[in-house]
Amino acid sequence: MNAVPFTKMHGLGNDFVVVDARTQPFAVTAAQARAIADRRLGVGCDQLIVIEKSASADAFLRILNADGSEVEACGNASRCIGAVLMAEKKADHVTLETRAGALEARAASNGVAVDMGPARLDWKDIPLSRAMDTAHVNLSIDAGNGLRLADPVCVSMGNPHAIFFVRDPYAYDLATLGPKLEHDALFPERANITLVDVLSRDRAVMRTWERGAGLTLACGTGACATLVAAHRRGLMDRKGRLTLPGGDLEIEWRGDNHVIMAGPVATSFAGTLDLARLTGVAA
Q1: What are the residues whose beta carbons fall under 8 Å from the beta carbon of 58, sequence distance 6 or more?
Q2: pLDDT of residue 276
Q3: What's the average model confidence in pLDDT over 44-67?
Q4: Is 219 part of the annotated catalytic residue set?
């Protein structure tokens, strides 16, 4: 199948090409995903999202990064697809199946809220390559200009995150530092890298380098992991506003260990993918 309908959506600028494969299978390859995500030769996106049938939820989300790698979770994509399915079902909540587990999306005053499941804090669950205290991880790098990144907190939100606390996230060349840290030997499955400046008990500013996608305007699981990390360090309460380059997300780390993320979603446009033209190979 060469002509494939798609919708372009985003959550705070974290953008997705969404393909509904519930009625027509879409067996996309890593090369095709990279071609679709290419911002000059393809549609352009941070992630390709394929909506598939699920036996246990309203839909299964297959999530492919811009580099073609498949990942477990994407918070902003979950909010976007949650909005699509709620509109379709004329309901105020839906369940989503992902490789990271089942998620519940609900209508919220500021858009869509998703229960991203429990924060995972043990070194084996991140995962790290060796045992250590994930609240004070032995990892550092010379950031240039007299700056250094060190002593991150690591959290898994179904995908691995390392959070560094800094005075100004924009003072660092994250485009250069991100891939080095993402591929550090400490992270056998690579990692998302976030720099955060905590402003108050309920406010923080952050930037994230996403594994397989690079610098993005927003990272939902990164915002969840950041609030958890800041609370573990005693810097923030269990509920707060995280300001990302693309806007704000409201995050709450509940007493049952589940992390709730809420924020706006938007649809940009719709179109049709010509896979043969994009890659020279039909799906």
Answers
A1: 85, 89, 94, 95, 96
A2: 76
A3: 97
A4: yes
The catalytic position among 80, 154, 219, 224 is: 219
Dist. CA 37–CA 47, nearest whole Å: 7
**Relative orientation angle of helices 220-232 and 75-89, to the nearest 10 degrees:** 120
Q: Find the angle CA(14)-CA(20)-CA(23) to the nearest 5 degrees.
A: 170
Domain count, the chain: 2
Is this prediction's pTM over 0.90?
yes
Are 100 and 169 within one domain?
Answer: no
- Which pLDDT belongs to residue 1? 52
Enumerate long-range contacts of 85-90, CB under 8 Å, 24 or more apart.
85/58, 85/59, 86/112, 89/58
For residues 101 and 117, is the Cβ–Cβ distance under 8 A?
A: yes
Q: Does residue 82 register a pLDDT over 70? A: yes
Range of the domain at 18: 3-110+265-279
Place of tokens 């991203």: 116
Q: In this predicted model, what pLDDT tens digit does every residue of 231-282 receive, in sequence order?
A: 999 999 999 999 999 999 999 999 999 999 999 999 999 999 987 777 654 4
74, 80, 154, 224: the catalytic one is 74
**Residue 74 appears among annotated catalytic residues:** yes
The whole-angstrom distance between residue 45's C-alpha and the CA centroid of its chain comes to 13
186-224 per-position pLDDT tens digit? 999 999 999 999 999 999 999 999 999 999 999 999 999
Together in a domain, 98 and 128:
no
Q: Domain containing 61 — which CATH number?
A: 3.10.310.10
